[in-house]
Amino acid sequence: MKNRAGILIILLVLLWACNGDKTHDKLQEPIIYNKTPEFSADSAYAYIEKQVKFGPRVPNTEGHKKTRDWLIQKFESFGMDVQTQDFQAKSYDNKTWDLSNIIASFNPSAKKRVLLAAHWDTRRMADKDTERINEPIDGANDGGSGVGVLLEIARIISTAANKPEIGIDFILFDGEDDGEPEQVNIRNNSQIWWCLGSQHWSKNPHERGYSAYYGILLDLVGAKGARFYREGHSMRYGKNIVNKVWSFASELGYSDFFITRDAPEIIDDHYFVNKDAKIPMINIVEFSPDFGFGHYHHTHDDNMELIDKRTLKAVGQTVLFTLYQE
């Protein structure tokens, strides 16, 4: 009896060990990701260069109007439903801006939607520079880079053999970059004089009852040596989205760009989408917890020489990959 009991115990231990190994093997199985097209940094770079050639995209200027027409035409050429949200807003110095949010929709009938955004206007002054302070900046990175990446994503998903199953809405916000200079004292501190387009859209969406699963804002995403930290409002409103995107970036080999370290909150377009439209939106933005914005911010150094295709590739491929995993 003792020998039989001993043999039975040994058999049970071996059976448990085999089952344990199988369970362990299942846990170690690699995740199978949906196949994602290649993001072209060359194409995104060309889109940025085209915007800069129109001149500064300051509201109420010829460069602004020409860029608006070109952006609409590009989205339409990708076969997307395009509409504009035209409105007027006051600037901090009581100017009346004629502004246009540009909305392009891919797969408009899909119920599950993701919102991608950037701003397409540029700043009318170089108030952080030491010369030509009152002249407008090129805005190659601050405005141009986010738009360039989104245009390339729009081109890819419209021409790819395998397309995302979800709906995707591209919104280019206007009037983002005209906040008052630091040296100007504004009496009405309750008014935020930048992010005018997102403030308007978030309270007046282009479709009644519009909603999206989540959103991603791209701002300052093309500079040489850029590092993207986990911005405060993004972590507050969309921590799970941040973790997912940063994890995908690491999986793709871009952990040198996407840093798993928190940065302070900044008021950017995503803040109003979160607060007023109630859509969780994160911000991929170059803003360091150590020194804030880059040296080029609101200066004439924000030109095409600043733009690095490696940075565009890291951001564009990560966002595109994220879309294809939904």
TrEMBL record:
It comes from the Bacteria. InterPro entries: Peptidase_M28, QC/QCL. It holds the Pfam family Peptidase_M28. Residues 101-320 form the Peptidase M28 domain. Keywords: Acyltransferase, Transferase. PANTHER family: GLUTAMINYL-PEPTIDE CYCLOTRANSFERASE, GLUTAMINYL-PEPTIDE CYCLOTRANSFERASE-RELATED. This is M28 family peptidase. It comes from Fontibacter flavus.
